Amino acid sequence: PRSIFMSRHGESQYNVEGKIGGDALLSVHGQTYAEALPGLIKNNIGDAPLTVWTSTLQRTIQSAQYLPYPKLTWKSLDELDAGVCDGMTYEEIEKQYPEDFANRDEDKFNYRYRGGESYRDVVVRLEPVIMELERQENILIIGHQAILRCLYAYFHNFKQADLPYIKIPLHTVIKLTPKAYGCDEERYTLPI
Ligand code: F6P
């Protein structure tokens, strides 16, 4: 059976600073994760063929750099666009845009950042990615938190309202193996 592997990029400099969005490079920890990924994947699939999908953002491309497989970058896999809040911390957003901050808490799935996107927008832009995923063999997606929540929710049939709260930790590979109904799941976390 074929599997869909998904992982967030390794820890980025923005993750360290608590800032959202952006196009930061990996931190030292994130770089260590990138170096450890090929061994983890090889242990799991041996010599089976695999294709790696990344977003166009540096942190995913950097995280995939040591993986010896064909790679494809998808603009549709870029992180949820936080619009005017891009590059801010949650504390800064709460201070500068208190109403928005409260609205997001009220309905996280539908809340759209000023000049940016909502989770609902992201679900729509991921449709072609999901169509292609359904046709492919083994794929490893190196993605972003909000993006992987949407993909994960699709394969596990999560309700929209729950989707923005799914836990997708850093430095963890989630392996989904679709069955007739639903998906088997395994998680591998690297202690980095
Ligand atoms: O903090 C990392 C990050 O990927 C941000 O770039 C993004 O805005 C956020 O997570 C998404 O998580 P949430 O929807 O819970 O704010």
Q: Which strand order do you get reading across the main beta sheet?
A: 3-2-4-1-5-6
The value of Rg in angstroms is: 16 Å
Low-confidence stretches: none
Got a strand count? Answer: 6
Instruction: Tell me, rounded to a whole number, the average pLDDT.
Output: 97
Protein name: fructose-2,6-bisphosphate 2-phosphatase
Organism: Fomitopsis schrenkii (Brown rot fungus)
Binding site for substrate: 8-15, 59
Keywords: ATP-binding, Hydrolase, Nucleotide-binding
Describe this structure in words.
The protein has 192 residues and is of the alpha/beta class. It is 38% helix and 16% strand. Strand 5 and strand 6 form a beta hairpin. The radius of gyration is 16 Å and the shape is globular. The model has no long low-confidence stretch (mean pLDDT 97). The site of 6-O-phosphono-beta-D-fructofuranose (F6P) has 9 residues, from helix 8.
Spell out the blueprint of helices and strands.
Layout: E1 4-8, H1 13-17, H2 28-45, E2 51-54, H3 58-63, E3 71-73, H4 90-96, H5 98-106, H6 119-125, H7 127-135, E4 139-143, H8 145-156, E5 172-178, E6 183-189
Parallel strand pairs: 1-4, 2-3, 2-4
Antiparallel strand pairs: 1-5, 5-6
